[in-house]
Amino acid sequence: MNALFVIDVQNGIVEEGDFTEELNKIEQIIEGFKERDEPVIFFQHLDEEKESPLFEESRGAELHESLRHHAEYIVEKRTPSGFFETDLESILEENDIEHVVITGFNTEFCCMFTAIAAFDRGYEVTFVEDATGTLNNGDTYEMKNLDIRDFIGTVLHWSETIEVLDYDEYLDL
Predict the structure, then answer these.
(1) Phi-psi region at 6: left, alpha or beta (left = phi > 0; alpha = psi -120 to 50)
(2) What mean pLDDT do residues 83-95 have?
(3) Which residues pair with 4 in a beta bridge?
(4) Isochorismatase-like domain: from which residue to which, for each copy (predicted)?
(5) Which of 37, 93, 119, 121 has the most CB atoms within 10 Å of its CB?
């Protein structure tokens, strides 16, 4: 069985940029999973630092209203990996999950780390590149014109372990 991971679609991230396209794609993927009665697992990153946009006791840490009504499961995490010190593996085992599909935020952190951790645990992984987003850009990493989603997608694709698709390719499956 398949499961959809919707990673860190939280106010503290989504409200800091224009992620309309990403949110629409994520919602379409969610609806497909729900039609097939496959689990949709949301992740909520919680930080202890009050300055963080995802401070655990702030509005920024809450799941964004555009998608939160779709959350069947919510996995709280404190690191980029959705597996580290969470109950994710038990949820996956209870649902006989073999394949996970990755969407959400931030592409180069929580999405990538969770995808790699899933592969390391024996899951088949599909990373929907343009159904992920990030607040960062090339200036953040001092790499002018860096397309973070494309870079991460290329690295994961070249690993030959994680299937990387764009949204249109995902729809063709």
Answers:
(1) beta
(2) 98
(3) 40, 101
(4) 3-156
(5) 119
Cα(110)–Cα(103) distance, rounded to whole angstroms? 10
Structure tokens at 118: 């899933």
pLDDT of residue 147: 84
For the purposes of burial, counting CB atoms within 10 Å of the CB of 137, is it exposed (0-12), middle (13-18) or buried (19 or more)?
Answer: middle
pLDDT at 141 over 80: no
**Measuring CA to CA, which residue among 48, 50, 66, 49 is closest to residue 11?**
66
Average pLDDT, integer, range 11-20: 96
Q: Count the domains in the chain.
A: 1
| Model pTM above 0.90 | yes
Identify the CATH number of the domain in which residue 12 sits. Answer: 3.40.50.850
DSSP-derived secondary structure letter, 110: I
Whose CA is closest to 53, among 65, 62, 40, 41? 62
